[in-house]
Amino acid sequence: MPAHFDRPDAGLRLLILLARLTLSEAQRRAALDLCRDIPAWNDLANLAERQFLLPLVYRHLHELAPPTLSPDDAEQLRQRALGLIQRNLLITAEQQRLVAELLEPLDIPYLFFKGPALAARYYDEPAMRSSRDIDLLVPPQRCVELLELAFQRGYRALDPETLTPDRQSLAFAVRTQRVVSLVSPGGVCIEFHHDIDRGAGIYQTDELLEKRVAYRAGNALLYAMPTCELFVYICLHHTRHFWSHLHWLVDLDAIQRHPDFDAAAAHACAERRGLASTVNACMAFYQALAAPEPEHSPHLSRRSRDMLEACLATLQGGQEAELALRRRRPTPEFGFPWQTTAAYRRASRVRRWVGRFQPEYIDYALLPLPSGWQWLYYAIRPCRALTRRGRTLWPGQ
């Protein structure tokens, strides 16, 4: 799946090079060379912030001390980075409060994945890793009581926005959505997942929860995926989004640098999950991005080059470019045809076709029916879809 990208400018090349926890001597020299070509440090800071990378970029630049970075520009970078670090610490505190106030009182098995959980386990300074939300996986049969308690503790609905705290409403939302999002009293988005692979059957929630491991975050003991499982999962997830944010590249770097990482175990896990091609391409992609001009790397396979080209296209084109690539994905779970089989793609098309007839929470919000009558949504949904399509075809009628 070819993707169009322009030759990255010095600012983007510098950020790609700095998207790792530590720099080799060759990378330090290349970074200093690129710093000479930065026309406006404020523009670089804006791009780094959009890529959730600014605190780490500031740390690297502080250590490199490039002559072209004036004291005033350095101070502005520092102040902006401190503001983001404070936000990251707030999210970490909300994660611990979530465990203490909701999960532990209900004795619900859980694990955190991505975001602050990944930062706490694999980053030398966890606050360097910026996060937008907290991702939590819990058993589907425990979701309703967890959401009930969350509403009682002051959480509010985000997705679905019209979610109400009564049990019937929550049960319908859990049945029709794989993730329900609430906003904590501290203003942090919490995504309550009971399925992390969009129903593809790659992961089973009960199995993941049985294999969870404990990790320490401050004074709290929390739970997450084993290292090899998490590594394979982030390769799958970030490839599905075409590596459109550079902090994901730091995640790949941080896990591989950690003492718990075992490349052979990660490959064996990828084989079990049917994701070996994805993980192999990601590791070659990661190696290419360690150089100042990764697009000229002679060692990339066609698959890794597909990944690199899509990454550079999304880094330059933003959300619009990512959405364009998403529309060309072979399935919702995979970004590239080579990640899966023709049989799987056919089965995915069937699932998507069937899914069009499945009720959504909006059906309930428009007409709340008791559980014994909710079968009517299967009849109502096609009518609503036709009405919506008619409004699209004949606006203003």
Explain what you see.
The protein is α+β, with helices and mostly antiparallel strands. It has one domain. 56% of the residues lie in helices and 8% in strands. The chain contains 17 helices and 7 strands. The chain has helices at 10-18, 25-35, 41-50, 54-64, 71-106, 115-122, 143-152, 167-176, 205-210, 227-240, 246-257, 263-273, 276-288, 302-326, 342-355, 361-366, 377-393; strands at residues 111-113, 133-137, 156-159, 179-183, 189-193, 213-217, 220-224. A 5-stranded mixed sheet has the order 1-2-5-4-3. It has a two-stranded antiparallel sheet with strand order 6-7. A hairpin with a 5-residue loop joins strand 4 and strand 5. Helix 1 (10-18) packs antiparallel against helix 2 (25-35), helix 4 (54-64) packs across helix 5 (71-106) and helix 10 packs across helix 12 (263-273). The relative contact order is 0.11. This is Nucleotidyltransferase family protein. Pfam families: NTP_transf_5 (PF14907).
